[in-house]
Amino acid sequence: MSNKLTILWLRQDLRLNDNSALQAAIEAGGPILPVYIDDREAMGDWAPTGASLWFLHRALESLEASFKKSGGQLFYLKGDSLAELKALIDSSGAGRVYWNRRYEGPHRERDAAIKKALRDAGIEVKSCNTSLLNEPHTVSTGSGQPYKVYTPYWRNVKERKLEPPVEVDLKTADFYTNKSMGCQLEDLKLLPDHPWHRKLEAYWDVSEESAMKYLDKFLAEPVAAYDTDRDLPRVAGTSRLSPYLHWGLIGPRQVMERLHATHDLREQGPQTYAKEIYWREFAYNVLYHFPHTPDAPLQEKYADFPWEYDKSVLKQWQQGRTGYPIVDAGMRELYETGWMHNRVRMIVSSLLVKHLLQDWRDGARWFWDTLVDADLASNTLGWQWSGGCGADAAPYFRIFNPMTQGKKFDPDGDYVKHWVPELKHIPTKFIHEPWEAPPSVLEQAGCQLGEDYPEPIIDHKKGRERALAAFDKVKAS
Fold this sequence. Notes:
The structure is a single chain. The termini are far apart. The longest helix has 22 residues, at 268-289. The protein is 45% helix and 5% strand. Helix 1 (20-28) links the parallel strand 1 and strand 2 (32-38). A five-stranded parallel sheet has the order 3-2-1-4-5, sandwiched between helices. It folds into three domains: 1-129, Rossmann fold (3-Layer(aba) Sandwich), CATH 3.40.50.620; 132-161 and 206-289, Serine Threonine Protein Phosphatase 5, Tetratricopeptide repeat, CATH 1.25.40.80; 300-476, DNA Cyclobutane Dipyrimidine Photolyase, subunit A, domain 3. Helix 5 (150-157) crosses helix 10 (268-289), helix 10 (268-289) packs across helix 15 and helix 13 crosses helix 15. It is mainly α. Its EC number is 4.1.99.3. Its cofactor is FAD; (6R)-5,10-methylene-5,6,7,8-tetrahydrofolate. FAD binds at residues 226, 238-242, 273, 373-375.
């Protein structure tokens, strides 16, 4: 214990409970200065944008209020992290800097450089884990290699003893306050210039308290049928915690503790949900060991895949105007809410990279800008899975049939009719392939194909054959 001031550098750990670095700062003694530094340039091409920045703004707003209730103050700075930390140390007299670790390549490199620079200057530095159950450097195959396939990864870690959430003793915390220091949240200009993000307010309550409420609501009932309902986009069968986990308004230790306390993980629903939490862990494991994968395929043979770049085709997909109802419903849900059901994410991704032969990176970029849960590890793993070029990826020749997928997972067409209202009067029989409906049925439904709703952007059979031909070129090279 000492009276030295500790700077608590917050990044994607925007909560008070189960915050390892915060509790370490409390235990160290002395006043604590919590700070968020807007240093988007450090992430280069993968700095947060769009919907993710909107969520971040609201998360910081909520965290600021939480610190205030606990007698503290959240400070905001903007600029190079090391330079800002040094200036803050000089102005506050801090002797320590604590933070929670990040695992993306640019952050790891930056954090290592900052740690060395501060220690060389005589500052005590401590980094902690608060965002993963098992850090990537603690998991490897029997031969010491990183995992590229999920199932053996899951077998390795599923029986490991889980660390409980960290109990943060806020009652003994001594927070540093100085109203004249730093800038205001609004000065960070996180909210996008485009007004579309205002729609997100209706769909998300962004706070640490809300994250726990959503978890408890999910565990009270939906988790029991998660193994089946998670595939039904019109059913509230998922937890929707992904943006809260990404920005750290809740941590996986909290999720797993509650899950174990309320359910038997031998039951199918709870076990399937636990495996999804570990799938997120696997995504970070892959990104940590293969930091180039946001920009290049893990499987090198796909580096020269014969993509057919077409901005018009990409735009039709982005706007939900492909003529495939389940795809268009998903893309419109995304643009309206900042989120898309995971089953539908797989369907829309498959159509883009296989039927339409558009680069998976273009799809990843669109998701990165429009998802409130835009997470570099999960986004990269998901898109490389769809493209057949990453870890645990579906074979490239596995090509989703959007009509079959729609009929199986949205059998009554409720999801499609909600997000594609121009099809709401189409009979269920034809809802996933309206081009098969007789002209009289379309006329009665008030839907003229090519006018009210587009014809398919590409014939399914033709798209499949073209994708397989492209795959054959890769095999032959």
